[in-house]
Amino acid sequence: MYFSIVANGRPPTVVETAAAFELDMLEMEESYRRLHDAHALVLHPDSVEVWMANPFCFAPTPHRVTAGGLGWTGTCAWDALGIPAALHTDGEVDSDCACCGEQVRLRVENGELVEGADLLVHILVPARRWWDDIGFT
Amino acid sequence: MVFLRSEEHLTRWLDANGWEPGATITAAKMNELARVWWWTRLDPGWRPRAPQESQAILDSLGLSGEFWQL
């Protein structure tokens, strides 16, 4: 899954994965659902399309990331900064202040946040409940 | 989990939405957490972490207290 995401910039569909492993589609759908249930990825509600393979997100959010020469979307502030970390590379995050909507930019170089370090990140949901509604978290 | 420009903006945002405050950290601290949390995500042998392993990461960065208990 992640090899394909990094290579293609998007997650493989069930059809593509089933073909690659020469497996039955229904069997592969079950595999996707098991990965979702194990919190290894997040599927869109009532579908087997990948919504999040954290830290990567495949639906629009305010958190746009440039890293490894490609553009990505971060699920949240944490995941946006997680993309350069996962790719082991420098990166830039362009996002918005949740209050006023003004653009904010963060830049990671050699693992350090060299721009935007004094911005704040707010986490509304206590850790124990992060997976209750991961979309809201 | 959102970015905010200042404490003032945080207070305004919470008030406007009628939300109780959760936890606030600097983006620098979040970057430290993101780096440790996601560094191994693309390793071919990656497996979901046990809760106590994830808790150890939070604790190691001083993210302790009831809010950060998994």
Describe this structure in words.
The complex is a heterodimer of chains A (137) and B (70). By secondary structure, chain A is an alpha+beta fold. Chain A has two domains: 2-53, no CATH class; 57-115, Super Roll (Bactericidal permeability-increasing protein, domain 1), CATH 3.15.10. Chain A has four helices and nine strands, in the order αααβββββαββββ. Chain A has helices spanning 2-8, 14-21, 25-37, 77-87; strands spanning 42-43, 50-53, 56-57, 63-67, 70-74, 91-96, 103-109, 112-115, 120-123. A five-stranded antiparallel β-sheet of chain A has the order 5-4-6-7-8, covered by helices on one side. Chain A has a three-stranded antiparallel β-sheet with strand order 1-2-3. In chain A, β4 (63-67) and β5 form a beta hairpin. Chain A is globular. Chain B is mainly alpha-helical and 70 residues long. The A-B interface holds A 2-3, 6, 38-40, 54-55, 62, 76-79, 81-83, 85-88, 95-100, 102, 104, 106, 108, 111-113, 116-128, 130, 137 and B 1-7, 9-10, 12-14, 16, 19, 21-31, 33-35, 37-39, 41-42, 44, 46, 48, 58, 66-70. β9 (120-123) of chain A pairs antiparallel with β2 of chain B, so a sheet runs across the interface.
